[in-house]
Specification:
This protein has 115 residues and is mainly β. Helices cover 0% and strands 53% of the residues. It contains no helices and 11 strands. It is globular.
């Protein structure tokens, strides 16, 4: 059974730093690309960052240079390090994997950037 469980969300001040973690199980992580999405209130869910099986990464324009996606296949985890956070980064963050033509989602973790 494929499971994705996010953790690490919370309240952070503008300019602050937060790291999210996604623990995966039920499949071999190293065989699949992984992604982080976010959904702000009243907005569509958007792709934030992608990491391929080889470790190459890609970011949405507004987070480039501030967010870093990494993977640890031995620990079955995907992380998202977020720095210089802004109010517009406030959202529920989800990790996701497509496996065998099915997209799997975690339950999401709320990040709020506010002073």
């Amino acid at each position: 059974q494929v499971q994705l469980v996010e953790s690490g969300g919370g309240l952070v001040q503008p300019g602050g730093f937060l790291t999210l973690s996604c623990l995966t199980s039920g499949f071999t992580l190293n065989a699949y690309a992984a992604r982080w999405y976010r959904q702000a209130p009243w907005k569509y869910r958007e792709l934030v960052a992608t990491i391929s099986t080889s470790g190459s990464v890609d970011y949405e324009a507004s987070v480039k240079g501030r967010f870093t996606i990494t993977r640890d296949n031995a620990k079955n985890t995907v992380a998202l390090q977020m720095s210089s956070m802004k109010a517009e980064d406030t959202a529920v963050y989800y990790c996701s994997v497509i496996r065998r033509w099915t997209r799997y989602w975690g339950q999401g973790t709320q990040d709020t950037v506010s002073s």
